[in-house]
Amino acid sequence: GVGEHTVVVGCVARFRPEKNQASLIRAFAVALRDVQNAVLVLVGDGETELACRSLARSLGIDGYVRFVGADREGARAHRAFDVSVLPSLNEGSPNSVIEAMASARPVIATDVGGVGEVIRSG
User: Fold this and answer.
1) According to the model, what pLDDT value does residue 73 have?
2) Cα–Cα distance for residue pair 57/59, rounded to 1 Å
3) What is the pTM of this model?
4) For the chain, which terminal residue's Cβ has fewer other Cβ atoms within 10 angstroms, N or C?
5) Distance CA 5, CA 46 (A)
6) With 0-12 CB in 10 A as exposed, 13-18 as middle and 19+ as buried, what is 1?
């Protein structure tokens, strides 16, 4: 449901404090100052979802952020993204990163827990 030339940035993760989607929303708001043809798609559900929705509204970017709910087949969601992001504060085995890479998507992720074992810079 986005335009052909729209950049789709996505994150597949439960809405929990350690997954840190709020920081991603804030960073996306800054990026939108320079790029208007982008959308942020957040796949998941959980305890911090309402706070993240409120944050997007308060930043005035709720029209650019899509909350699509949980999807048990995360790899399917990654195929719809131009870039996949995982902004976790801590992480064990980063399934979301592995699914994104299996879908041949570039990944931006924080270097926490097992993420550094899966992603190599460059």
Assistant:
1) 72
2) 5
3) 0.93
4) C
5) 31
6) exposed
